[in-house]
Design brief:
This protein is α+β, with helices and mostly antiparallel strands. The protein has one domain: VSR Endonuclease (Endonuclease, Chain A), CATH 3.40.960. 47% of the residues lie in helices and 20% in strands. Strands 1-2-3-4 form a 4-stranded mixed sheet, with helices on both faces. The mean pLDDT is 86.
């Protein structure tokens, strides 16, 4: 799952040019007081994921006007990500703009379930 040099370069470039929904979402993910950590514009193989949660092995894509991919390109990308053991969650940009807090909270809960019990918190 090593990133290609092109993907690493693109990821660095994209980090400075997030769309409005991506900016809102990133702010909420960073503010969340949970054990999960997210990366933005994370290179994976030849692709760059909008967001990535390693603990949950989940790629999060905010789909909107800034993504100029064809459906076939999205399918190839998703197939590749699945082949390396990652789940892909696509969230419409309109949903993020309409209620970013609810979308971020639902994503966090989904990632927490997928990641399993925390290894940083003592069991009670």
């Amino acid at each position: 799952m090593r990133a290609t040099a092109n993907a690493m370069y693109a990821a660095r470039r994209y980090r400075g040019h997030l769309s409005l929904p991506e900016q809102l979402f990133w702010r909420l993910l960073r503010q969340a007081r949970r054990d999960l950590r997210f990366r933005r514009q994370h290179p994976i193989g030849p692709y760059v994921a909008d967001f990535y949660c390693a603990a949950a092995k989940m790629v999060i894509e905010i789909d909107g006007a800034s993504h100029n991919h064809s459906q076939a390109a999205d399918e190839r990308r998703t197939a590749y990500l699945h082949s390396v053991g990652l789940q892909v969650l696509r969230i419409p940009a309109a949903d993020v703009l309409a209620n970013p807090e609810a979308v971020a909270d639902a994503l966090m809960r989904r990632c927490e379930r997928r990641a399993g019990p925390s290894t940083t918190q003592p069991e009670g």
